[in-house]
Amino acid sequence: MQERGQWGSRLGFILASAGSAVGLGNLWKFPYLAHQNHGGAFVLVYLGAVLLVGFPIMVAEIVMGRRARRNPVGSFALLATGRPGGKAWTAVGFLGVVTGFIILSYYSVVAGWTFHYIVLSLRGELGALASEPGALQVYFGQIFLGDGVQQAGYHLAFMAVTVGAVYFGVKGGIERVSLVLMPALFAILLALVIYAMTTSGFRPALAFLFRPSFAELQPSAILAAVGQAFFSLSLGMGCMLTYGSYMKREDSIPRSVLEICCLDTLVGVLACVVMFSIVFTFDLKVTQSATILFTTLPTLLVQLPLGDLANGLFFVLVAFAALTSTVSMLEVVSSYAIDELGWSRRRATLTMGVAIAVFGLLSALSLGGVPALSRVNLFGRSSTAGVFSSLDYLAANWLLPVGGLLIALFVGWFLDPRDTRDELETGRARLGRSFGLLRFVLRFVSPLAVGAILFSIIFLGREYQ
Ligand code: TRP
Q1: How far is the CA of 241 from the centre of ligand 1 (A)?
Q2: Which of 86, 298, 370, 403 could tie 130 with a disulfide, CB 3.0–4.6 Å?
Q3: Residue 291 belongs to domain spanning
Q4: Is residue 4 domain-resident?
Q5: In degrees rounded to 5, what are phi and psi of residue 248?
Q6: Model pLDDT for residues 189-211, shown as the tens digit of each residue
Q7: How do residues 286-336 score in pLDDT, each as one tens digit?
Q8: Which ligand 1 atom is at minimum distance from the Cα of 99?
Q9: Is 410 in the pocket of ligand 1 (CB under 6 A)?
Q10: How far is the CA of 99 from the centre of ligand 1 (A)?
Q11: What is the pLDDT of residues 107-127, one digit of tens each?
């Protein structure tokens, strides 16, 4: 039996977990969801979702992981022994590992685009493409996405870097990478916020984001907010559970979860401030908000002073954020192979990394490179055409909420409350009454909120993202 890894410091754990949480979900999805759902009120509802669903479920995951000190499958196996449902709960852990495999396979395709944009910036070509009206749109949509060789190449490159980080273990790889990349990420984001403050769109952006207009709030926005909270906080597949399993006994779980949630939310909100400042400076009607990050934003930035530099920096920021997230997904899959199959870390990261990279080629080539893959549609909806979109829909709309719901139910109803309390109160925290409140939320509020999402997808046919 090899010695199990552990974080070297509390800061290392916080930055690695915040690194997992902060990713494409914050920089790409959150701004376009906020835009689609008319800003202010959506942002408020999102904060509510983080508090009522995100916070408690993250606590539940980390409690499980640190109690069991295993990967998701092993944790369920250990903690469910002798409780109702028994070993059947390991299926939930297994679902998490499979979900990690699937999400990483297509997430890394989008992450790979950031490498391409950095290369374009360094060659000075991004500025040129962005300054000619419509050119970047055409380049991105019709040339780049359809170029199977480039899509596959950048995806494989991103996977290689991810494997490289996880290969060196919890402390020597993941923590070390996070300790460098996360502060750099915060610095770049801060620089971009200061830059945004000098633009004329800054004030309208703040008004859009922070002046709620509830008249414009639709029920679908609430579902979108809950779904986004899951994705953005890396919940529902045992990612935080796995990171929690490397946490030291003496560190406080509630305090850490609070910090991770705050960092993640702050980055999402600041990313919105930057993007909307730029968009409002040009008084632009964003029609294709889903690709705003890769098509609209560069064309606007380039027209501002120092725009080329800001553009390049922006994609470095996105690449860093994505890397600390892909690393966390690979760690879930690897830790399963290490704990349950008895593989060495090297063997686990290389084998799983290669398997995910190869499977991900299907997504990379489904964006236009191989027409047969673009026609695959697992759910028959217009928005799920192609392997890439089908997998995203499956994972984000189904697998994560189902996983999160089951984790909340397991910890809320089946884990011994004394064990939960014991985990939560190490590190000198005394919870007092707030433990009862947390338990209530975990037993009733979070499951009902997530259940409502699933219900609405099934019966109202609504996609929540
Ligand atoms: N939270 C990351 C983001 O916002 C993505 C991510 C990493 C994730 N690990 C996860 C999403 C686990 C769901 C589950 O981009």
Answers
A1: 13
A2: 298
A3: 10-459
A4: no
A5: -75, 150
A6: 999 999 999 999 999 999 999 99
A7: 665 667 889 888 988 898 888 889 899 999 999 999 999 999 999 999 999
A8: 14
A9: no
A10: 11
A11: 999 999 999 999 999 999 999
Ligand 1 center from residue 234 Cα (angstroms): 4
Ligand 1 pocket member 33 (CB < 6 A): no
Residues 149 and 139: their CA atoms lie apart, in Å, by 15
> pTM of the entire structure?
0.95
Instruction: Please check whether residue 363 lies inside any domain of the structure.
Output: yes
Q: What is the DSSP string of 194-244?
A: HHHHTSTTHHHHHHHHHS--GGG--HHHHHHHHHHHHHHTT-SSSHHHHHH
C-beta of 232 in contact with ligand 1 (< 6 A): yes
Ligand 1 mutation target, pool 230, 232, 265, 330, most atoms within 8 A of CB: 232
**What's 253's domain CATH number?**
1.20.1740.10
Residue 19 lies in a domain: yes
Q: Output Rg (C-alpha) for the chain, integer angstroms.
A: 21
* Alpha carbon of 231 to ligand 1 centroid (Å): 5
CB 168 within 8 A of CB 159: no
Amino acid at the residue 243: Y
- How many domains, in total, are found in the chain? 1
Q: Does residue 169 fall inside a structural domain?
A: yes
